[in-house]
Design goal:
Largest interface: A-B, 25 and 18 residues
Strand order of the largest sheet of chain B: 5-4-8-17-12-13-6
Number of domains of chain B: 3
Distance between the termini of chain A: 40 Å
Largest sheet of chain A: 6 strands, mixed
Radius of gyration of chain B: 35 Å
CATH topology of the largest domain in chain A: Rossmann fold
Number of domains of chain A: 2
Number of helices of chain A: 10
CATH class of the largest domain in chain A: Alpha Beta
Shape of chain B: globular
Strand content of chain A: 25-35%
Helix content of chain B: 40-55%
Number of strands of chain A: 16
Number of strands of chain B: 19
Distance between the termini of chain B: 113 Å
CATH superfamily of the largest domain in chain A: P-loop containing nucleotide triphosphate hydrolases
Structural class of chain B: alpha+beta
Oligomer: heterodimer
Radius of gyration of chain A: 22 Å
Number of helices of chain B: 28
Order of helices and strands of chain A: EEEEHEEHEHHHEHEHEEHEEEHEEH
Structural class of chain A: alpha+beta
Helix content of chain A: 25-40%
Strand order of the largest sheet of chain A: 7-8-9-4-10-11
Shape of chain A: elongated
């Protein structure tokens, strides 16, 4: 399987400052790719570049094997795009929205659409502008799914959604990707929700892609290590670069090992030959994300 | 499915409420245009209402257009990164097509169809109506495309409104600047011809259309908004530059209708019979002395028949005392409009064999021969010199178009123009013709001849009597019907024809005359232009100059009628007697008071022709009334009573013969309805001594014009509360003109009013020259003081508080005195 999204040294500057900086992103076909990063990291800018909404300052990108500047109606027939900031035609009701969208897509599936409508439980007689935020997102998702897109791009879809709706939303996407085999590219700063969805993870901070790999290998690689130090033990100033966010509290010393494996034991013993090590703990995606975020902030400072 | 049509349907559903409103406004505006054209000129209230609603509708249709367009385009905005449609598989060109279909179907087509219906309903030939459609579409685009351009560069209504406001204000400011620049330059330069003005108008409109269309197209292609704004700015600047400075002439002046030989034969010379006039020339630099304009009249020879010439440009030199002055002047500019009123002499030639009864028409043939700097003017005054000029001039010709019967509904249609008589209002000295004049002009077929003033002039003719009258005035009632693109222009105007001035006395426009009358329409045609050389040796001008406007005494004499030559031959026919009476009136027309000779002459018509005197009496009531009194007999009761309403002064005859009871109804009715009754009428009503008429008499005294005469008639009526009437009349007069309170002051003094003493003592209360003497005389009489107005005022101001009125002596005396 190839990459459905690929960027090559992609740059987007705003008034001389990079919002996306030398981005090299690869999203494998059929994956659910979680594109993570704090607010202002460059997630939405990346997506807008991929969707040909804005134009890159430098570098290039391809979506569905087509350079982004050439993406047009033909490609959008295979792309579903839902964004938290998208302005919807509020004067329409859901059936009117679907009626408006349907002729644009040759692959529009009425039965599938009907099934989704039932699943999403959306009212038919309410104008979109009068719907709640969750309903609006679901309506947009519905209008982006009914034609069975090859690539679903979701930009911060969970913002402002209550937990119940989020859960429904996530279950819906999981169900669909499982059965349809679509690629989903989802940006979020809400890791808990994405953890259930994603099989690939990318982490962007200050416009730079810090990490991009399969969730499984990522979780395999990161461990929380806790050490009980003997009396008088000193912590050297220079610690291995694989140790993230080290912190000491009395006799306890904690860090996140980012290259967990055989070599990690050796690294530990080279620093603390006498110390007692507690069994390293696997980390959730959220903990990894937080560790990385804090690490990069510390590096920047 | 065609996506453009799909988008069109979606927009129709989205904007359906606006569309219903918009189409209603378009239909209502067209309907009001038709209503305006048919509104009776006399129905001012309806005119005002229709005019007001039409104005509102026109404004509303623009507002709606300015609202619908952004709502339409902003549903698929081209700016910003968050709109729904930009990540959907819609080609931008399909969106553009959908929007253009909507605009064409709903915003352009209905007004164009409404205009077509209006034109056809107004009697415009279908071929012209068909030819108007492309122009109509062009102007619609010129209005709609800039609104679209503003909408495609913005993503919400607030931003759009701001951009539109800036666009409109910039355009307005630049237009005002352009107009000012033109006005300033044309103080001394030739006015731009219609060919150039229309070319600039067309090119600037075309520029607006093209650049706006480009902005829209580029924005739909590339969504590069900042470039669109730059183009919008460029559009404003280019449009301004073209509209103001573009020298390109797309249109051309029509070719001369006269042959070159005929044109070169026309020569100009100075009219020696008219004196030179000096005027101050407008000077651009207010701090320097004004130039002087030397004006005179040019006479043109070898002109085609029924034509006259007007100078367009005079390039002249004047050489005297070794000094040579060069001057360029233009026959027309913003501060010296060429007055193209009727040229009576040429009209008279044109309508022959009909005889034009000359009224007091003045035709301005004034031409600026030379413009001289003030210093040179002082130095060269009264110094003979050589005047040479190259004179460029236009030749105009009167051409009879048609004559239509003087009846309501009579009409004449020619290509694109029509004339319809709405009504004919007869009066004692002529008639007012309410005429609807309509012209349909397209930019493509417009005749761009030099300014010829009014293109059509009107003559009232009677072929049986072989007489014709030029109109005295026309009153434009301002019922202008314009369609949305101003191609159809209709005016309802009142043409006034009178036989009351000058020697027109001898040719009355009465009922009999009007029964066979027709309205002749003359068109002013431009025949061509050429240049001729003029040389005058010993040309002089003087500081005093002369007046074009004052006729010499000899000229005056030639137009008045010598009464000694008027005779009434024995055995004259009624027509001859009528002519005799009119000649007598004309001979004594310059006298306001009764003239014994005139009365004697009128009396000569004899009792058997009293009706002729009565029917012509309104030409000179002062002379007619004594003559009628002398001739009238009790058997003339019916004649007098029948004409009483028309000639109010006959009320005196009614009193004389004791016919008051028979005239009672007419007299009371007139008192209630009119405010300009002659004194004799009031005397007659007073003579009835009928208490029922007293409120009307009081009202007439308070509101009517002749307060002194009314007071004299009512002051001694039995049971009439004269004090109350005087008090009310004074209260009203104080707030009115100085003429009115001047008439009331002697009456108030007679009634012992201290207030009027104070009023007179206040110098801010000026007196009218027409009754100042009578007020001073009354103050002197009732105070016993003598002196000038100022001295009397000072005395009144100083003593008003200490005076009391003594009814016995009718004097104001100091308090305590006896």
């Amino acid at each position: 399987m190839g990459n459905i999204i690929q960027t090559n040294d992609l740059v987007k500057n705003y008034r001389g400052k990079p919002a996306v900086d030398q981005l090299n992103l690869e999203v494998p076909e059929g994956s659910i790719y979680a594109y993570l990063g704090p607010n202002g990291a460059g997630k939405t800018t990346t997506i807008k570049l991929l969707m040909n909404i804005i134009f890159p300052t430098a570098g290039s990108a391809e979506v569905l094997g087509i350079p982004t500047h050439k993406i047009g109606p033909e490609q959008f027939q295979q792309i579903g795009y839902v964004s938290e900031n998208q302005k919807i035609p509020g004067w329409m009701t859901l059936p009117q929205l679907l009626h408006f969208c349907k002729p644009m897509y040759p692959t529009w599936d009425d039965d599938f659409c009907q099934r989704l409508m039932t699943q999403f439980d959306l009212p038919n007689d309410v104008k979109l502008k009068s719907m709640s935020r969750g309903m609006k997102v679901k309506a947009m998702l519905l209008s982006s799914l009914a034609y069975r897109p090859k690539l679903l791009v979701l930009d911060e879809p969970f913002s402002g959604l209550d937990p119940l709706v989020r859960d429904e939303f996530i279950r819906g996407i999981l169900e669909l990707t499982e059965t349809e085999g679509w690629t989903v590219f989802i940006s979020s700063h809400d890791i808990d929700e994405v953890e259930r969805l994603a099989d690939w993870v990318g982490f962007i901070d200050k416009g730079k892609l810090q990490l991009s790999e399969a969730k499984e290998s990522l979780q395999e690689r990161f461990r929380q290590v806790e050490v009980t130090l003997p009396d008088g033990a000193e912590i050297p100033k220079e610690l291995p670069k694989e140790w993230l966010v080290p912190e000491r509290a009395g006799h306890a010393f904690r860090y996140v090992e980012s290259r967990y494996g055989e070599a990690s034991e050796e690294r530990f013993r080279s620093i603390f030959p006498q110390a007692e090590i507690v069994e390293p703990q696997a980390l959730s995606l959220r903990d990894i994300y937080l560790a990385l975020a804090r690490h990069f902030r510390g590096v920047a400072q | 499915m065609n996506l453009a049509r799909h988008i069109l349907k979606k927009d129709m559903r989205h904007l359906r409420v606006f569309l219903v409103f918009w189409i209603s406004v378009v239909l209502l505006t067209a309907l009001l245009s038709g209503l305006k054209a048919t509104t009776d000129a006399g129905d001012i209230a309806r005119q005002q209402l229709v005019q007001m609603v039409y104005g509102l509708m026109s404004a509303l249709s623009f507002i709606l257009l300015a609202l619908i367009i952004p709502f339409l385009l902003h549903s698929e905005p081209l700016t910003g990164t968050t709109s729904f449609w930009i990540t959907r598989p819609i080609k931008k060109i399909e969106v553009l097509k959908g929007k253009l279909m909507f605009i064409g179907l709903f915003l352009i087509l209905p007004p164009v169809l409404a205009d077509v219906a209006l034109y056809l309903g107004s009697g415009i030939p279908p071929t012209l109506v068909l030819a108007s459609i492309p122009e109509n579409l062009f102007y619609s685009l010129a209005l709609i495309l800039p609104l679209m351009a503003a909408a495609v560069l913005t993503r919400n209504f607030g931003f759009y409104a701001l951009v539109l406001a800036v666009y409109l204000v910039s355009s307005l400011v630049l237009t005002v600047i352009a107009y000012g620049v033109k006005l300033y330059s044309q103080i001394t330069e030739a006015p731009d011809p219609a060919t150039l003005l229309d070319s600039r108008h067309l090119l600037s409109t075309l520029t607006t259309v093209i650049i706006s269309a480009l902005i829209i197209f580029m924005q739909y292609r590339t969504r590069k908004t900042s470039r669109g704004f730059v183009m919008l700015g460029i559009q404003i600047a280019i449009t301004f530059a073209i509209a103001t400075y573009c020298p390109v002439k797309i249109f051309r002046e029509p070719a001369n209708l006269m042959s070159i030989e005929a044109l070169t034969n026309v020569e100009a010379e100075l009219n020696a019979e008219r004196s030179i006039r000096i005027a101050d020339a407008f000077n651009r630099n207010a701090n320097t002395a004004a130039n002087k304009e030397v004006k005179g009249e040019l006479k043109f020879r070898e002109l085609p028949e029924n034509s006259y010439a007007k100078a367009r440009k005079v390039d002249s030199t004047f050489e005297a005392l070794g000094k040579k002055i060069r001057s360029h002047s233009y026959g027309s500019n913003y501060f010296d409009f060429r007055t193209f009123e009727q040229n009576p002499t040429v009209v008279a030639d044109t309508i022959q064999p009909l005889e034009l009864v000359q009224n007091n028409h003045y035709f301005n043939d004034d031409t600026t021969l030379l413009e001289v700097p003030y210093e040179d003017f002082l130095a060269l005054t009264d110094e003979p010199g050589l005047y040479e000029a190259a004179i460029e001039f236009d030749i105009f010709q009167y051409h009879p178009v048609a004559s239509i019967p003087l009846k309501t509904g009579a009409r004449h249609h020619s290509e694109g123009s029509s004339f319809i008589i709405d009504s004919v209002l007869r009066n004692s000295s002529g008639c007012n013709v309410i005429l609807r004049e309509q012209h349909f002009t397209l930019l493509s077929n417009k005749q761009r001849t030099p300014d010829k003033g009014q293109e059509f002039i009107f003559v009232l003719i009677n072929r049986e009597k072989n007489e014709a009258f030029l109109k005295e005035y026309d009153y434009d009632f301002n019922i202008d019907v314009f369609n949305s693109q101003q191609m159809l222009e209709a005016q309802q105007k009142t043409l006034q024809f009178e036989s009351k001035s000058g020697n027109a006395y001898l040719h009355p426009i009465d009922d009999e005359w009007l029964d066979a009358a027709e309205l002749m329409i003359l068109q002013v045609r431009w025949l061509g232009k050429t240049t001729t050389e003029l040389t005058a040796e010993d040309f002089t001008f003087s500081a005093s100059g002369g007046s074009f406007y004052n006729k010499s005494n000899d000229e005056k004499k030639s137009t008045t009628v010598d009464h000694t030559a008027i005779t009434l031959p024995p055995g004259s026919t009624r027509n001859q007697i009528k002519t005799y009476a009119l000649k007598v009136h004309a001979a004594f027309s310059d006298k306001e008071q009764a003239d014994e000779t005139a009365v004697e002459m009128l009396t000569e018509v004899g009792h058997e022709h009293l009706d002729i005197l009565v029917n012509t009496a309104h030409y000179n009531p002062a002379n007619s009334l004594p003559a009628i009194e002398k001739l009238a007999k009790p058997s003339d009761k019916e004649l007098i009573l029948k004409n009483l309403n028309r000639c109010g002064f006959l009320a005196k005859t009614v009193i004389q013969f004791g016919w008051l009871d028979d005239a009672r109804e007419t007299l009371i009715e007139g008192l209630n309805e009119r405010d300009d009754l002659p004194a004799q009428w009031i005397e007659a009503v007073a003579a009835l001594e009928e208490p029922g008429s007293y409120p009307a008499l009081t009202k007439y005294f308070v509101e009517g014009r002749r307060k002194d005469e009314t007071y004299a008639a009512i002051r001694n009526l039995p049971g009439f509360d004269i004090d109350r009437a005087v008090s009310k009349a004074w209260k009203a007069a104080k707030k009115d003109s100085k003429h009115d309170y001047g008439l009331m002051m002697p009456i108030m003094l007679e009634h012992g009013s201290i207030e009027v003493i104070r009023f007179y003592g206040d110098p801010k209360h000026e007196l009218c020259d027409c009754n100042k003497d009578s007020v001073i005389a009354a103050v002197q009489k009732h105070t016993g003081q003598t002196g000038t107005d100022a001295e009397l005022r000072a005395w009144c101001a100083a003593n008003a508080d200490t005076l009391r009125f003594d009814p016995a002596s009718q004097r104001y005396l100091p308090e305590g005195s006896r």
